[in-house]
Amino acid sequence: MSSSLRVVSKAGTLGKKLSFDARDGISAGNDPHFHERLPHAESRIAKASIRKPLLFLDDSESSFKVSTSGGMKKTTTLPCSSQGQRQQHHRRSPSLNNFPRFENAVTDSAALSTRALRQSASFSGRVFTSRGGRLADQSTPCSSRKTSRNDVNGAAWRISPRLELEEDPAFLQDHNVQVLLRARPISGIEIAQLGHARCIRQENAYAISWLGQPETRFSFDYVASEFVTQEELFRVAGPPMVENCMAGNNSCVFAYGQTGSGKTHTMLGDVGDFDRQPNENRGMTPRVFEYLFKKIHEEEVAQRHTNMKFKCRCSFLEIYNEQISDLLEPSSSNLPIREDSTKGIYVDGLVEVEAQNVRNILHLLLLGAANRKVAATDMNRESSRSHSVFTCVIESQWECDATINSRIGRLNLVDLAGSERQKSSGVDGERFREAASINKSLSTLGLVIMDLVDIANGKQRHVPYRDSKLTFLLQDSLGGNSKTTIIANISPSSCASSETLSTLKFAQRAKFIQNNAVVGEDASREAKGSKEHIQQLKDELARLRRQNNSAIPTPEMLVVKLVSERQVTKRLRNEVGSYQRELSECRMKLRTSLDANQRIVSELDVLRIELESSQDECKKLQQDLGTMKLEKALEVNCLELKQAQHHELMFELKAQLLKSEEKAEQEASSRSQLEIQLQEATQESTNLQTELQWTRDSLEEVESLVERLQRKTPALESGVPEASYENFMHG
Ligand SMILES: Nc1ncnc2c1ncn2[C@@H]1O[C@H](COP(=O)(O)OP(=O)(O)OP(=O)(O)O)[C@@H](O)[C@H]1O
Questions:
Q1: Which of 2, 472, 509, 723 has its CA 20 to 30 A from that of 182?
Q2: Cα 43 to middle of ligand 1, angstroms
């Protein structure tokens, strides 16, 4: 009586398929020494949990909890390894990597563990295994997480059911839209804020409950818990998409969710050094192309007689602030979207590169990812600030009856920018504008989906595809001839409770585009009621039959009983029919009210987003106003200071003026005295000049007299009569 199960150590470094049984304890495949390396506590857990179907491993600070249950849950708490043992364990763990194909064991066991247990004869119930090493610790890259010390101490190692996803390749044959919900592990930042408080509880592989007020249950096509690997998720969503495209149809996978919820991890993941070894954390896109090229090869070989050939042309674009840029040719920006009757909707001027193999695709993906706009917000260190769309046009050609046939399918892989609340994401300025643009395009996406839901319900609606570049570009994928898988990513932490609720609502609405199964929540209760009633009636019938059997029936009695039983059966049939009619009426009513509710909820969502963004704007304006007021107050202070200085200066100037006026007065009086003196002096000078003139005149006269005398002198000397001399003197 043995079974196999994967036991994961608290460090997340032990991952090995173990066989254990009640008598022999633990062994691991062909490795005889494996149990020696297993920490004591784990060994005890495994031994303790073998008989009953429910195994529940818990790793709290001081103990491992083992719950075994066959109906009632019993919990045994086993002491955990001491700190010393724990360290020893940690030191030992690298040696486990030397196990043959240890990496593969980790990957494969993920898919095998529960399935193996289910198939096992001794385990008929459910097995929940908890898997460590899958923390969304934003400071640690995924690839290194497995052995990270944070994981050892990080309390993210926690119990959560790991529920199997069942692959259903036929799903997309009947549905155009498939909605998957994926929860990522609680991140280190969230643990630091609110510990391990969770806002969701997974009910089964299709349903999840949001644990707020009121507690709300949502159902989807698949719900992937945090323990679902990239490979498992791909197996559910990837192959049908690829096959649909190869058959000449369009497929679209897009990841939606709050910033930091794991969209890029889901779509691109950790590609690592692909040339050496594919990374187990690579996401949907690389895996889709691995599968595509494998299928292409198989198809070309199988259809060799028709000379079938495939061509893949790829392009990679981003929509940032409502502008389209080519991620493979970053110099070309603001590319226009055009619509053409033959080409459909396309981006004009977008580079298309032919890819021959996965390596080519990865090269393009990495090139584009490097050109993508990312920034750090409070929620995510490397937040994508744009929507990215990787498109691969798959063209096939083959010959048949001397004619060449061709098919074209288009595969769109969309990584949306994170929806976020500006106030919780620590954004400002440029980041704020980005966030507003992201939220606007996502709310348009929400409205488009709402209208498509209405259309699916037979209502007439104008779908506002052109209100955003994103919806315009994805028009065919959303409402056209495309098969679409929406992966809604959420955080399970209570820190992100409202964002998670909003994503759940979005995803639920998207599911309504074609799938109405969720309506069944209440309706199924009614159906259950009807079934119970039918069962009661059947039991009653059986009892009556038994009673009848106890009597000794005559043929007449038997006929009468047969007739009466037929009547009862007929009555029961009628009752069932009327119940079914009631049920379908209830379904219709429920569906109508759900539709109305969904619409109101979506409108409320849009209004909430708008309100939040205007509240944020208002807050920013208030902050600006506060800053301006402060600046103005400072300016007023400065001015007042200057005014006081000015007054002081005026006062001093006035005093100086007074002094100068007094001085001027004094100077004026001395000036007038001086003027008088000047006048007198002038007068005197005039007099003196007159006198001088007079003197000069006299002098001239004397000189002329002297001259005349000098002229007369010779005459005189020669005896001129006295009279002449007298005449001369007076003449
Ligand atoms: N399923 C998962 N398992 C482990 N780690 C995960 C998982 N999902 C997300 N993470 C981690 O969480 C962090 C945030 O994820 P990611 O960058 O993919 O978020 P996002 O939704 O693309 O954010 P944004 O919208 O801001 O770009 C990353 O460190 C990533 O490795």
A1: 472
A2: 34
What's this model's pTM, rounded to 2 decimal places? 0.52
Binding-site positions:
257-264
* Predicted pLDDT of residue 90: 32
Q: CA 93, 94, 95 angle in degrees (round to 5)?
A: 90
- Give the residue, by CA position, lying nearest to ligand 1 atom 14: 260
- CB of 257 sitting under 6 A from ligand 1: yes
* Spacing, Cα 657 to ligand 1 middle (Å): 79
Nearest CA to ligand 1 atom 15: 262
My answer on whether 529 and 430 are in the same domain is: no
Task: Report the pLDDT averaged over residues 590-602.
Answer: 78
Q: What is the pLDDT of residues 517-558, one digit of tens each?
A: 222 233 344 444 555 556 666 677 777 666 655 555 556 666
Domain boundary pick from 611, 641, 664: 664
Q: What Rg, from alpha-carbon coordinates, does the chain have?
A: 49
Domain boundary among 612, 643, 664: 664
Ligand 1 pocket member 417 (CB < 6 A): yes
- Nearest Cα to Cα of residue 316 among 268, 351, 266, 287: 351
Among protein residues, the one whose CA lies closest to atom 28 of ligand 1 = 138
CA 264 – ligand 1 centroid, Å = 6
Residue 263 CA to residue 257 CA, distance in Å, equals 7
Residue 701 in any domain: the answer is no
Q: Pick from 380, 385, 413 the residue to mutate for probing ligand 1's pocket: most ligand atoms within 8 Å of its CB.
A: 380
Ligand 1 and 495: CB distance under 6 A:
no
23-79 pLDDT, tens digit per residue, is: 333 333 444 444 444 444 344 444 433 333 233 333 333 333 333 333 333 333 333
490 and 532 part of one domain: no
Range of the domain at 43: 1-131
Q: Does the structure's ipTM exceed the value 0.95? A: yes
What distance in Å separates the CA atoms of residue 464 and residue 448, rounded to the nearest whole number? 6
Average pLDDT, integer, range 288-298: 92
Written in H, E and C, the secondary structure of 114-140 is: HHHHHHCCCCCCCCECCCCCCCCCCCC
Query: pLDDT category, 706, cuts 50, 70, 90?
Result: confident
Is the minimum distance from the CB of 387 to ligand 1 under 6 angstroms?
Answer: no
In a domain, 591, yes or no: yes
pLDDT at 117 over 90: no
CB 406: neighbour CB atoms within 10 A?
11
Distance CA 430, CA 68 (A): 55
Residue ranges in 184-225 assigned as alpha helix (H)? 188-194
Question: 353-404, pLDDT tens digit by residue?
Answer: 999 988 888 888 888 888 876 555 555 555 667 888 999 999 888 888 778 8
- Domain assignment present for 207: yes
Ligand 1 centroid to 352 CA: how many Å?
Answer: 28
Q: What is the mean pLDDT of the chain?
A: 70
